[in-house]
């Protein structure tokens, strides 16, 4: 590694040997050959695997025979590594390292190294130096493996060392320097950036841990404690025998001397190594020697180690010359040292002062002076060091408190996020400390002194940004009112004595006035409010302070502002106006709050009483300031978009609130005043919002500037909309809506980063308003926003007009009516046109149809399409299902106009499809709303149907997209949903059903795709996408019309028009499906849409022929003829053959299962030769036995398969059922587990679950429950075998537990033998609950719980004799939750949520056990004992512990007093403490509450 110098020569054996001139290569080569040969004949026989490592030497050397490995051979290895360390030459180094690794990893060979300790020390030293001196890219990865092995051996030697002096000498003399350099480089990630990063990081971590263990065992041994005491505490040991330690003096000096020695690496690296090592050495010192009574010793080591850092000894000029990175490195070490002191409680203020002459205090004072005199506000660690010093003792920093406040807060330039957080933590500690000391006024004195110092005020950041302001707010809320009033008075005094006299002539004083105003505003706003229970002296003092502030500060400031005789400077005028208006706003707000909360507070502004005041009695902005003066102030403030204008808006808002509170009835004058005030607030920031700003605001008043004013103004308006909206004119409301739309984020890039989301931006505010549940309640704004959105969309559509606009404006008037006239247009139409008038509907529909059939005159290009899509994203966030009728119709026609518009050739098919999908999704959402019927006053459903499909067919002919493309299939689903909603709406209102459905069917029969398909046109000339659209339309028609016709015919026997229409729809659908089947039969599987359509057709067909047999679909008689039997039978055959393949697609499989279920209802379709039951069963078995289908997929299919099996059992015979049971028992044969045929087992288990989900009775039920004992036994054997496998196949164990729980629940009355139920306990005891991944644990645990719960609830007779077995299983669950819920170093929140869910189940089981007190009372003390015994072994997460304790409290309810005494005596001492704590909590929280509830129980 560059920067690491050559190591001093080592005097261990063999390392310093000289070679003869001219014979070096021969000697080396022969020695290496001997070494390689020796590796083959170790002292105890050859080691397998080492021959391959030594093979290269054997092939290149001439050695007559192998010989044993000896010490000189290891010296050769050390020589080669030393040569590599010095020269960097990699010749043969890999082979040498391989030999070394082989020796160290073989105990029989490693003993030669460990027997001669100097060899392993030399090896370690040279290995570390070799690693440190190699360039990052040239380092040999094997070096780390060898270092890892060598360190492991040396640490073992250290642990067995009986001579502490020798161990100390080896470490400090030879290993300390190279190991510290190596650890520093490893900590910096020098070699952990390679391709095998994860492996190297783990190895790097292990090596660093070994280095720390080696240093602890050598330099900080327990035997060296007396030497450290003699050195650090300067104690004389007298005649006490020192043994081997008598000549070992000053161990700390020795370690420090080796550390600060500059000869072993370059100065640039040396400083970093020393800094990195100081904190480590102090940590190791504390780990070894810190205990009660050794605090002074541990402190004495601190200044000695701190003296190694450059901060402690460099001259002043050199300290100032240090770079920010150097400061960061050194301060991080200081922070670690101070944290070690704080965490170990080394510093006790009283002990240090009384016994040690404040030795520690003086050191920390010198350190504090160093830090404050060399401010480093850009380094987070600097703030953290000061924070620790403040937490140790506030007196450490108090002498320099003013400099601390200046450098760390008021004059600090902090911009970076981490640094800002560190600054906030320091300020928080500072305030909290003085709050506890009740010396906050003293702190405020210092703050005011710093603010009022002569300084370049314009360069200062705002005193109260978000972080410091939050800290100060929390502090003030904890203070008693008297101290807050003291601080308040201090600020007033400072303002009056220092700032006001010089304000007229000084810009710097104007800036200071704003800082003091921000501070005073924060104090006033965060004082605890007064109420009627507040002591009267406090109320009077507060009132006097308020009056003094108004008369002596606020009014003089406003008069200075009105006189405008200050310096001719905009900055002065701006800052004075900001300061005056901020204090005016603060006074008015606090005055209103005190008046409302405290009846004994008498405001100068007058009481908040109801009534009808005269014009002269209406509230003013501020008492004593005339209206004409406010007009002048408004003109002055209008020059600046800053804090003053924002505060003036707040004053007007406060005036509105006073007017609303004081007047029980709004007179014309009051109403006029409210409207004027609201108009001023909105108009004040109107100009600033015209230029959209990307600035973010932290929400603090003091940080409002010209840049953030638009955000603050918009935040003020939006957060007070509920007050303002009622008094704004229609034009102002439209303006608000326009700004709201304009400031919404229209793209991902505008939504901002995570850091910006913490602050307030225009986009965040508007987005919050849009998503607020209150937004639709503000009808005027909501309506105006809808109109703005409509206007924006129509303007884009009109920009794409390619024909005569005047003619189009007559055909599509809703696109050309401007702004608010849109809604008025539809309101007029609804007022004039009744629900039964046809002309307007026909007119609009005919216009749209004529435009769609010819060539729609609006064409959208790429940029226009993108703009509309962004606007449609906004539309999708609105509650379209809750619109009023005019808006509903407006948006319906707007979205429909978009959907039928042409798309230019510059747009891709995918973009076009996305646009259409968005339009029709919104149309479907709209038609689910409360005003959906209003569309029928404008157009007939049949006309909408025709317009949509005509447009879509024309567009589909231009789509360059495959018919199986997922996006196209999703679009078909969206279209189907929209068409279905239209027809359902038609049925709901029953408006001209025959007419509308007749027109729909007539249109579909002459629809171009239908005529192409039925005319025998060649396949290549047909439009496949159009055919799919036709099929979706016909399918939805049958799906909606079928059930309705069936219900209609039961109530209206004489009507035959609708059944005839349904029959036509069925015939048309069948024709299209047959054509699709023919065209798609060329080696392709049936698509899910096709199967769904066939299923819908079959359901409608069966319903049509069985409508006289009740409301539900029932099996048909053989005499009934279906419309398309050949189609159904063909699809049936194909589905049976393809069912396993269809299982790969969820939608296809579900559609196929639904078809088979319906097929069973039509006996006339069943084949004469083969049994439908057997065919379907075998096909389903193939699916269940297919190893390519996962367990999770099968579980998802179970509800659909359950419906199929229910129908199968209806049509199947007893013999068919016997066949199913045979297959189940064959699948549960234990041989399948031995053959590892897990799929056969899972298939049988799934079949049992499917049968249990069916309602069957009679002989079939009898057959099943007679086989139940055999099934339970088979499940036990399967589970036992599965749990012996490694890893356990949980995919089998989980379903077995599910089936067992279901059998126990449903067999409550039929499983009569208690022995068969008791067998379930053996299954539960074998299920593993440890060493599972979180998701596995969360899957298995509830299943075990379900089995236990099923036994407890459904088999009480079994529980009478099986309580011990039950408790064994339950305790397994309890202990498992405790083990998984223990506090760990790592683990995600999701993992803890899994354990919490399981803990809730355990708590619930405890409650069920407690509910059966008669059975479990005897066992309750043993349950408690087992709980506390296990609880003593682990530290649980509080949430887990709380859930478990709630359950065990219920068991303690069952314990009587002798049981409690027994537990107190019988438990082990450590467990007894846990029980004592548990029982105390039980009595305090649970029992007291329970007894309290009994008092109210009758």
Automatic annotation (TrEMBL):
Transmembrane segments: none annotated. Residues 1296-1490 form the Nucleolar 27S pre-rRNA processing Urb2/Npa2 C-terminal domain. Pfam families: Urb2 (PF10441). Residues 1-25 are annotated as: Disordered. InterPro entries: Ribosome_Biogenesis_Reg (IPR052609), Urb2/Npa2_C (IPR018849). This is URB2 ribosome biosis homolog. It comes from Equus caballus (Horse). The lineage of its organism: Eukaryota, Metazoa, Chordata, Craniata, Vertebrata.
